[in-house]
Design goal:
Helix content is 49%, strand content 16%. By secondary structure, the protein is an alpha/beta fold. It has helices at 2-26, 36-41, 43-51, 83-92, 95-102, 130-139, 141-152, and strands spanning 30-33, 56-59, 72-78, 108-111, 121-127.
Length: 163
Amino acid sequence: MMNTNWKYMVIAIVMILTAGFVQNATARDLIIVASKTTQETSMDWLGFLKSKEIPMKIITPDSFSEYKEELYIVVLGSINESKEIAEIAEEALTAEEFQAISNDSEGKMFFKPQAWNVGQKVILFLGSNPEAVTKARKSSRDEWFEMLKEWFEIEENEGFHVY
């Protein structure tokens, strides 16, 4: 009889801990890594994300090491803008991908699951200059918005066409 009570107690504890973990996983922030200049030029996009009630934390590239284990990360920037963005890009991309964006005036979006941590989802909008980064974000909007809808359980998708 005592053995049965222990079983139920262990099951109850596991269920409570599991429920707490699920709540924390859905409440995680989208970590956005961007220089102050890129943040300023991306205010419309950041405002759009906020309007969709996506929980965000915007950080500069020099503090990225504190957040690189987070579940959801977006890196936004020109690899020629700051050495930190270039270093982050070199860590996440293959050598061929990095070389391709170094000379590309269009920029590119990359999706790198598990770039630094198991289960992690990382989107990088990169280019050789700020205009290329904006082009990369705008040309891939259908793709990144579908990802964000899934990650943050966004119901509707009206009005995102301009971002």
